[in-house]
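> @MW can you paste both from yesterday?
MW: sure, first one:
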Amino acid sequence: MKINIKRINDDFLMEATNDTNNTLLMDGSESIGGQHKGMRPMQLLLVSIGGCSAIDIISILKKQRQDIQDFQVEVESDSIKVEDHSVYKDIEVKFLIQGTVDLDKAKRAAELSFTKYCSVSKALEYGSNVSYSVYVNGQLA
């Protein structure tokens, strides 16, 4: 998987594009000069965990022939400062499902998502090794 991110103004507004040309906008917080024209990167982390688990749960419930008429996810967290950066200590994900859906099946689907299937929650749980390189005018720094 490859994501490309391009700065589109003189401040912090950026557009991210995936390998199938879907896009989203990111911006910095107002406190550093952002203009609320896109989601902040830390917000996208919450979007990712909510979206990943939602896809799992919907998939599981559809296979069980549950009739989902409305599906919403609320994700809440407060970031805490650690050294020079912020992290999410506790993330609460709430699924609001309407329809003819068995309560036990919905609960089990959520459990399976977070214990087995959701790659985003697993990445947060176990951590990921992150590497980086920097190129300036095409030259590796």
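MW: second:
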Amino acid sequence: MGLSTHVLDTMHGCPAAGMQVSLFTTVGDAATLVKSFVLNADGRNPDGPLYDNASLKVGTYRLVFNVAGYFKARGVALPEPSLLNKVSLDFGVADAAAHYHVPLLVSPWSYSTYRGS
């Protein structure tokens, strides 16, 4: 299945539909944009996996989630500057044949991630 992500809005108890996400490949401090997308009603990439098994490569990656933009669009009053603006998750892929699922649980004040299934 390659690489996938899923975002749940823990403030409202629902998928983070409409959140802007960007995927980068990284080498050291340098990052190259692969794609940007807006999460669908299920809080997932509308085009399916970010990489399929044939395209996923061993290496390092970054997912950037526009958390403040999402919550502002939902009408949540955030302080300026907001505590969380964009959440960046840097992670490595050691086995390109495996499935890497990188979920994000997020509110305006906290987030959590893990390697999902």
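> thanks! The first strand starts at residue 3 and ends at 9.
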